[in-house]
Specification:
By secondary structure, this protein is mainly beta. The protein has a single domain (4-735), classed as TonB-dependent receptor, beta-barrel domain (Maltoporin, Chain A). The strands form seven sheets. The chain has a 22-stranded antiparallel beta barrel. A five-stranded mixed beta sheet has the order 1-6-7-4-5.
C-alpha cells in the first residue's frame, strides 16, 4: 500500500481560485449576455475556474510572455500535478501526463483548442503527434479531478485547453522578431480590428532552429514550423433580444524537422550527450495540419446561454526514421543501445558508422516511413442555465457532442546499408515491405450534466459524463486483426467546497476515471478505469494565494499502449496492467510583495508522487515488460518543483525560474534504482530580462538552462536523450 495517508496529513492551501463564490456568480449572472460574448473562446475565466469541482489552473497571456516559451512543456511545468517526459528538447512532440497517467505522447489526457478536441484522432489514435503552437495562445488551462468530466474522453488524469486569442475590439497589431542560439529564429505577426458588428484577425508564426545535436558526418538536426490563422467574427447588436456571436477560425500549420527516435548508448552519451549517430542521418518528420472551426454563442437572457461548435481537422505526417535492422534475427534497437557489447557490438558499430553493412539482412538498416493521414470532425453544444433564489443558487451545465475520427496508416520499410560512415539505399531505393497498412476509425456520442449548487458557505458540484464509442479497425495485411467494438461508459463525479473562514476553505472530490481502448487493440484489452479522489485546503487573501491538494487514483485496470516503434510484434496493441495505485500532493503558492514602485513576485509549484502496480504480469509493451507487484511506474518523479521570482518595475523586469525533477525509472521497479535504468535528477534555471521603452516597443533577453546542465532525460524511444543545453534568445516586440 502507498504511504498516502501520511502524505495527506501535510495538506494545506491555491492559486488565484476562490472565495466570494456566491457573490461573484451573482454578479456574473447579471452580465451574462455581455461577458459571454467577450470571453467566448476561453473555457474558464478566473471566476469560472473557481466554480469548477476539482482543481483547475490558468496560465494567462502575461505569464506566457514572461519567458516567451515556444515549448508547451516549459509552460506546463509551472502547474502542479503535470508531468513532462522530454524527447527532442524543443517540445515538438510533447509527452504530457497529469496526476500520474503515462506521459507517453500525451495519449491519456484530453487536449483541446477553444474547447474543441485537437489531437489528430483522439479516439482512434490518441497519441498527440500534433499540438497547436503555444506561442499564439491567449491562455493555457488545465483541469484535474472532477473538473475534467466535462472534457472527455479521457478523465483519468485531466484535460488541457489551449485558448486562442479573440478578435481585438480596437485595431491592434503585433510583431515579434527573435533570434537565438543554434540559429533559432522566430517571426510572429498579428493584426485585427472590429467594425461595429464585424471583426477579423490574421496571425502568422514561423520559428526554426538548426538544432543542438551533432550528427556524425554532418547534417541537419533542426526544424522549421509555420502557422497561419485567420479569424472572422460577427456579433449581434446590443439591442438584439438574443445576444449572439459567431466566430469562424481557419488555420494551417506545417513542420519539417530532422527528428529521430534514435538516442545514444550510455557510454557514448557520457562522452558527448549532443551526439547523433550516422544511422539517423535520413530521419525526417514532415507534417501539415488544417482546420476549420465554427463557434456560435447565444445568450437568450441573463440566465440561459449556449455555445455551439462545429469543427473539421486534418493532419498528414510522414516520419522517415531509423527503426532497427531488417533481419528477423537481429536484436531490437532498444536492446542494442541498452547493452552495446558482446553479440550486440557489431550492430552498435554499424549504427555509429564505424562498420559497414554486409549482404546479411541482419546488418541492413531498417528505415521506415511511418506515413499516416488523420481526420476528425464533429458537432457539439453546451448549455449554461442559472437558477437563483434567496436560499441557494444553481449553475446547471449540460453538453452533447458527436465526434468522428480516423487514422490511415501506411508504414513502408526501406533498406539502407552503412558504407564508409554514410547511409546508402538498398533494393534500388524501392519499398522493401509494408509494415502497417490499416485504418482505424471511431464514432463517439458523449454527453455531460453538471450542477454547481451554492448554499451559504457551501459549494457543491455534482456531475456525470457518458461516452458511447463505436470503433473498428481494418487491417489490409492481416484480416485476423480486423476489430469492431462498442463501449458505453458512465463517469460520475462530485466535489464540495466549504468556507471555513472568509479566506480559507476546504475541498474534497471524487470522480470515475476512464481512458478508452483503441480500435486496433486486441479483444483482450479492456479500457482503463479508475476512481480518483482529491482533498485539500485553499487560502486566498489580497496578493497571497495558496493551495495544497492531495490526490489518489485507484486503478481497477491500468492500460499500456504500444506505438509504432520500440515494441516488436506489438502492432498498436494494448495491454491490461490490472490494479494500480497513484497518489501524491500538489502545492501551489503565489505571493506578490510591493515596495514603492517595484513588485517582487514569488511562486512555488510542487508535486510529490507515489505509485505502485498492485499485480504481477508480463507484456510485450516495452515500457512495462516484466512487472512485479509493488513496482513503481516508469517516468514518474517522486518530487518535482518550480520556484519563480524576480523584480518588476515600471519599465523593466528581471525574472528567474528554477525547475527541479527527481530521478525517474525507465522500467518498473522498486527499491534502489538500477544503474542503467533511470534518469538522473535535473535542475534547470531560466532567466528573463525585459525593458519596456514605451507601450509599443519591448526588448527581451532570455536564457534557458543558464548553468548548461545536460543529462539523460529519457531513454525512449531508443537510447539516452538529452535536455536542451544552454540557449540565449533576444526578442524585439512591437505593438501598434
Amino acid at each position: 500500500m502507498l504511504k498516502h495517508s501520511l502524505v495527506l496529513m501535510l495538506a494545506t492551501m491555491t492559486s488565484s481560485q476562490l472565495f466570494a463564490q456566491s457573490e461573484s456568480n451573482k454578479e456574473k449572472n447579471e452580465n451574462t449576455s455581455v461577458a459571454m460574448l467577450e470571453e467566448m473562446t476561453v473555457l474558464g475565466s478566473s471566476e469560472d475556474i473557481q466554480s469548477l469541482s476539482g482543481s483547475a489552473h490558468s496560465v494567462d497571456r502575461d505569464a506566457l510572455e514572461e519567458f516567451e516559451y515556444t515549448d508547451l512543456n516549459q509552460v506546463l511545468v509551472t502547474i502542479p500535478g503535470v508531468y513532462i517526459r522530454q524527447e527532442d528538447g524543443y517540445g515538438l512532440r510533447p509527452n504530457i501526463g497529469i496526476r500520474g497517467v503515462t506521459a507517453d505522447r500525451s495519449q491519456k489526457i484530453t487536449i483541446m483548442e477553444d474547447g474543441i478536441l485537437i489531437k489528430p484522432a483522439p479516439y482512434s489514435a490518441p497519441a498527440a503527434y500534433y499540438i497547436p503552437n503555444v506561442n499564439r495562445m491567449q491562455a493555457v488551462e488545465v483541469f484535474k479531478g472532477p473538473a475534467a468530466i466535462k472534457f472527455g474522453p479521457n478523465t483519468v488524469g485531466g484535460a488541457i485547453n489551449l485558448a486562442t486569442r479573440p478578435v481585438p475590439v480596437e485595431a491592434t497589431g503585433e510583431l515579434d522578431i527573435a533570434y537565438g542560439s543554434y540559429n533559432f529564429q522566430k517571426l510572429r505577426g498579428m493584426y485585427g480590428e472590429t467594425f461595429e458588428q464585424f471583426g477579423y484577425m490574421i496571425e502568422g508564426l514561423r520559428y526554426s532552429a538548426d538544432g543542438f545535436k551533432e550528427l556524425d558526418g554532418g547534417g541537419d538536426t533542426g526544424f522549421e514550423r509555420n502557422d497561419v490563422n485567420a479569424r472572422f467574427m460577427w456579433r449581434s447588436t446590443a439591442e438584439a433580444d438574443i445576444q449572439q456571436r459567431l466566430d469562424l477560425k481557419l488555420g494551417y500549420a506545417d513542420e519539417a524537422s530532422d527528428e529521430t527516435y534514435l538516442g545514444l548508448a550510455e557510454a557514448d552519451f557520457s562522452v558527448n550527450p549532443l551526439r547523433r549517430y550516422a544511422a539517423s542521418s535520413e530521419d525526417a518528420f514532415n507534417s501539415d495540419h488544417s482546420q476549420v472551426h465554427i463557434i456560435h454563442q447565444m445568450a437568450f437572457n441573463d440566465n440561459v446561454s449556449f455555445i455551439n461548435r462545429a469543427y473539421v481537422n486534418r493532419f498528414n505526417r510522414s516520419w522517415l526514421k531509423f527503426d532497427g535492422f531488417v533481419g528477423n534475427d537481429a536484436p531490437t534497437a532498444e536492446e542494442i543501445l541498452r547493452d552495446p557489447t558482446g553479440i550486440n557490438a557489431s550492430f552498435m558499430a554499424i549504427i555509429r558508422g564505424d562498420q559497414d553493412s554486409s549482404s546479411d539482412p541482419n546488418t541492413v538498416i531498417d528505415i521506415t516511413d511511418n506515413d499516416r493521414e488523420y481526420g476528425s470532425q464533429g458537432l457539439s453544444t453546451d448549455m449554461t442555465y442559472f437558477i437563483a433564489s434567496n436560499a441557494m443558487e444553481h449553475k446547471i451545465e449540460a453538453g452533447l457532442r458527436y465526434h468522428h475520427d480516423y487514422v490511415d496508416r501506411d508504414h513502408k520499410q526501406y533498406a539502407y546499408g552503412m558504407l564508409n560512415g554514410k547511409l546508402e539505399p538498398r533494393n534500388n531505393g524501392q519499398v522493401l515491405q509494408k509494415k502497417e497498412f490499416n485504418k482505424s476509425e471511431s464514432n463517439a456520442l458523449s454527453a455531460y450534466l453538471h450542477d454547481t449548487l451554492t448554499v451559504g458557505d457551501w459549494i457543491i458540484n455534482l456531475g456525470a459524463r457518458v461516452e458511447s464509442i463505436d470503433s473498428k479497425n481494418t487491417d489490409y495485411l492481416n484480416s485476423s486483426k480486423n476489430n469492431k467494438r462498442q463501449h458505453t461508459e458512465v463517469m460520475p463525479g462530485a466535489g464540495v467546497f466549504y468556507h471555513l473562514t472568509e479566506n480559507l476553505g476546504i475541498l474534497a472530490g471524487v470522480n470515475k476515471g476512464f481512458s478508452p481502448n483503441g480500435p486496433a487493440a486486441s479483444d483482450a484489452a479492456n479500457p482503463e478505469e479508475s476512481i480518483n479522489y482529491e482533498y485539500g485546503l485553499r487560502y486566498n487573501q489580497d496578493s497571497l494565494h495558496a493551495e495544497i491538494i492531495g490526490f489518489f487514483s485507484d486503478y481497477k485496470n491500468i492500460l499500456g499502449r504500444c506505438r509504432s516503434s520500440g515494441d516488436r510484434d506489438c502492432h498498436f496493441d494494448e495491454f491490461n496492467g490490472g490494479r494500480a495505485e497513484i497518489g501524491g500532493v500538489e502545492v501551489n503558492l503565489e505571493q506578490t510583495y510591493q515596495f514603492s514602485d517595484m513588485n517582487i513576485p514569488l511562486g512555488l509549484s510542487y508535486t510529490y508522487t507515489e505509485s505502485a502496480f498492485q499485480e504481477s504480469f508480463e507484456s510485450n509493451f516495452s515500457q512495462w515488460d516484466e512487472v512485479q507487484k509493488g513496482d513503481e511506474m516508469p517516468y514518474l518523479p517522486e518530487n518535482q518543483f518550480r520556484i519563480y521570482s524576480g523584480l518588476k518595475a515600471m519599465n523593466w523586469d528581471i525574472l528567474a525560474s528554477i525547475k527541479y525533477t527527481d530521478e525517474m525509472r525507465d522500467l518498473p521497479g522498486q527499491g534502489a534504482f538500477d544503474e542503467h535504468q533511470y534518469t538522473q535528477a535535473l535542475t534547470v534555471i531560466d532567466l528573463s530580462a525585459s525593458y519596456f521603452f514605451n507601450d509599443g516597443i519591448t526588448l527581451q533577453l532570455t536564457a534557458d538552462n543558464i548553468t548548461d546542465e545536460v543529462l539523460a532525460v529519457s531513454y525512449r524511444p531508443f537510447g539516452a536523450r538529452p535536455n536542451k543545453p544552454r540557449t540565449f534568445t533576444g526578442t524585439v516586440k512591437f505593438r501598434f
